[in-house]
Amino acid sequence: MSVHKEVKKVTTHQLQEMKRRGEKISMLTAYDYTMAKIIDHAGIDVILVGDSASNVMAGHETTLPITLDQMIYHASSVIRAIDRALVVVDLPFGSYQGNSKEALTSAIKIMKESGAHAVKLEGGREIKDSIERILSAGIPVMGHLGLTPQSIYKFGTYTVRAKEEEEAARLMEDAKILEESGCFALVLEKIPAKLATEVAKNISIPVIGIGAGGGVDGQVLVTHDMLGMTHEFSPRFLRRYLNLYESMSNAFQQYIKDVKSKDFPNESEQY
Ligand code: KIV
Q: Once rounded to an integer, what is the mean pLDDT over residues 130-140?
């Protein structure tokens, strides 16, 4: 009897092949089993267990408070749901910036305890040693440049990054450093589309954009945003595919009404 499932899983190698043949890569966030199951069955290529869970799931203002153990809890819930997608997990703030040994320990803990397939780290040249040490243990690494929310207190705003020439040149250099270090892919967040397109053309690894235009190799959105569950956050790059905030509010209000009016449960809804 075979223990292998029939479904073909997405690998980091396949993402690189997709870039080579010009097939765009789809990526969405998930933090729990039920959402991950729906997204995976829809056929997504990559699921990101983003540290945006700190905002979306826990209601924090920034991504900084989420811990390694909390990321592992979210990641293992997602992993239990997956048949096909590649699952990438964010290393949270404070778990890799200090030194490369600590970065490796954090990445190993995530891989061992959640069963995830890869990790993502924010930053360029300043975390090169950490990336290389994690890669030396055979753990695939996705990079993340542009708007890096873990550094929000350094920049002070969530505005578009690398608009000026100097910052754009530095970002291009960092992208090349991440490629040379061995990252299998790179997220570019909230930078001018022209620059993102140039980066995607100049490096061989897939570039996945969020607010980085259509000239990159794939797109990622925060699932709760694209479903319209959140409504305070409306950046230009966000396409909302549903207005779940409104649909869910209507359903909850109807339920409350039905309970109060004794309409629910009716004869056929009881034993
Ligand atoms: O944490 C996250 O959801 C992310 C995406 C916005 C790329 O890093």
A: 98
